[in-house]
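Attaching the record inline, Q. Sequence:
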Amino acid sequence: MDFAQTFGMVLKKHRKEAGFSQEKLAEICEIERTFISMLERAERRPSLAMTFELANALKVKPSVFVIEMEELLNINDTDSQR
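Structure, as predicted:
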């Protein structure tokens, strides 16, 4: 699994937990619904600013995205010290 796929999975999980449709999340973030879809399908990669905006809209800390992605990608402490 790569970065884009992992981000998409984490985004979709939190969007569904928040009870938002792609359309509702896009509306809150003032972006196109198709962009949310593309992120979830790993067709686009988010900027850092967009990651913060999405996290804010979903009422989670941006670090939650990073932590969950690390877990899914099996990144351990020795890898992150490089």
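The chain has one domain: 3-80. The mean pLDDT is 92.

More tomorrow.
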